[in-house]
Amino acid sequence: MRKLELVKALVLTSALTIFAAACRPGASEKDFTAQRIADREAIEDVVNRANLGFELSDPDLFAGAYAEDGIFQLDAKGPVFGFDKMTYQGRGDIRSIIADRAEKMKKTDPKTLSFDPATLKMYIRNSDERIVILDPKTARHTSTWMAVIKTNVDIHISAVGRYQDAIEKRDGKWLIVKRVRTE
């Protein structure tokens, strides 16, 4: 009888030890969590580069956030002020959004403007940001944005809308593959 109780206790102890080991977070779970955090930070970084590049009128910073075959699409009835077309395809074309705008501003005769172009500042504020990592190589990002323009004459809200981004991890780097901008 004593032997039977000892065997039962040994089996129960073994079962509990195995169960406890299975419940303990293992290295693979820690690796998964660390990778998920790193991916989220990289996604936040690529979205920030796109938004800051637009705000600072830096065509390389802006376009560098997009995949080579990326798409920037305006989801509105055209034309949209400040844009030459409704869809831009490819990083070079996306870069032209900022580069062409800066070039047009340089060619504008300041005497035809109601403000001093040297004082023009644009601020883009993003809020309600949401990142959803769908799998190890794809994610979605949405946010509400507001463009505020400041000059020596006044400060005003220029436009408001939403961004909906499709983001992919390519060659270990997260990039925007499609941004839809709504107003």
- Given helix and strand content, the structural type is alpha+beta
Low-confidence stretches: none
CATH topology: Nuclear Transport Factor 2, Chain: A
Largest sheet: 6 strands, mixed
Number of helices, where a helix is a run of at least 4 consecutive DSSP H or I residues: 4
Strand/helix succession: HHHEEHEEEE
The tally of beta strands, per DSSP, is 6
State the share of residues found in helices, binned by percent. 25-40%
Please indicate the count of domains. 1
N- and C-termini, Cα separation: 80 Å
Name the CATH class: Alpha Beta
Strand order of the largest sheet: 2-1-6-5-4-3
Rg (C-alpha, Å):
26 Å
SS strand fraction: 35-45%
Task: Write a compact overview of the structure shown.
With 183 residues, the chain is an alpha+beta fold. The protein has four helices and six strands; from the N terminus they run αααββαββββ. The chain has one domain: Nuclear Transport Factor 2, Chain: A.
